[in-house]
Amino acid sequence: MKKCGRRELPELLEFLSSYNRIALVCHPNADPDCIGSSYAIRSALRARSPSVAVSILVPDGINAASSKLLEYLDFEFASSMDGDCELAVLVDMPSLDQLPEVKELMILKKIPYAIVDHHTAEPRSLEGAVYSKLLATSSTCEIVYRSIPKKYLNRRATQALLTGLIYDSRRFLIQPNSSISAAMKMIHRGADFALALEMLLNEQDISERIARLKGVARVRLYRARDWIFATSNIGAFEASVARSLTDLGADLALVASGEDSTSRITGRLNERFQRSTSLNLASCVMHPLVDRFSGSGGGHPSAASAKVSALPEEAIAAALSLISERLGLSPGELKEISTRG
Ligand SMILES: [Mn+2]
Q1: Are residues 44 and 184 in the same domain?
Q2: 304/64 Cα distance (integer angstroms)
Q3: Which of 27, 224, 257, 309 has the least C-beta neighbours within 10 A?
Q4: What local confidence, expressed as pLDDT, does residue 98 receive?
Q5: Nearest-5° angle of CA 271, CA 275, CA 276?
């Protein structure tokens, strides 16, 4: 596994235990990977160093997929940061750009931060971190599992990690060898695979199902060589729509939503396309879009998003041209496929 961290630092728990008050900060729409990782870090740290006060901060809501896991963990969390916090740990996110209020408070109170994450690193944010644990795994839960001495991991925390790992590896489709072997170890330590799957089963909300179907109905298709690209626009659930389009057969999906002159754009690649082209949606598409239109964004090579000051159609057109350029397509090689007839 490639190590992306820039320096060798002490063990995660050893480092954290040098502070008295820590907040583990979850990303907006905290998913089971983020929740599972935060829960396990807190639980292990409490076991190792009971005098450290550690809270979990969920400043901008949780993802629907996390609700059963939260119920199981009987999870109490804070929604705003205490000013007397001595260290913030960014869990499952590369920077604080998506949490401007938390970022502002941390700058004001000069609160240092650490990063535990598996997304494409954001150099400026990484530079400012006092500690980082970054690995290119399919989930942050896998990083946390590898980083924590097992004597501090109880069964519930291991269950939380397995659930997050299954979720973020897309049920072992991403980096299967490494994610399956980590999951096996968790199962040997008492985690229950069936329970994890059950916690991830969630009835899709009717508005999400409508969004997916509308997104598919509004699709525009393009072909270049043997690749199919799909674009669409929708008012919400862009990630869910993009995932539906790649599930239906698109190699690449871009879905945008707009409000006034700001858009959110989300991209997904299927694994085969990602492997054969090495296209990185975070560094080759979302970061350049942010540079061009201003805003914030990032993610993984095969799943990334950005919020930019542009109309949805502008953002999609710019993303398509960045992708064409990156793939070395000649002008005219990307052709729109008619969806009428
Ligand atoms: Mn994750």
Answers
A1: yes
A2: 19
A3: 309
A4: 86
A5: 120
- Write down the pLDDT at residue 182: 97
Is 69 a residue whose pLDDT tops 90?
Answer: yes
Shared domain for 191 and 222, answered yes or no, is: no
| Residues 290, 314 contacting (CB under 8 angstroms) | no
Q: Residue 303 sits in a domain of what CATH number?
A: 3.10.310.40
What are phi and psi for residue 57, nearest 5 degrees? -105, 120
In the chain, the largest separation of any two C-alpha atoms, in whole Å, equals: 68
- Report pTM: 0.78
Beta strands per DSSP E along the chain:
21-26, 53-57, 87-91, 113-117, 131-134, 220-224, 227-233, 252-259, 262-269, 295-299, 303-308, 335-337
Ligand 1 geometric centre to CA of 69 (Å): 15
Closest among 118, 115, 70 to 97, alpha carbons compared? 115
Token pair of 92 as six digits: 């499952």
Which structural domain, as residue segments, surrounds residue 327? Answer: 207-337
Classify residue 168 as exposed, middle or buried by CB count within 10 Å of its CB (0-12, 13-18, 19+). Answer: buried
Which residues make Cβ contacts (< 8 Å) with residue 312, sequence separation at least 6? 233, 256, 257, 258, 263, 265
Q: What is the enclosing helix (H) or strand (E) of 203? A: none
Rounded distance from Cα 333 to ligand 1 centre (Å): 35
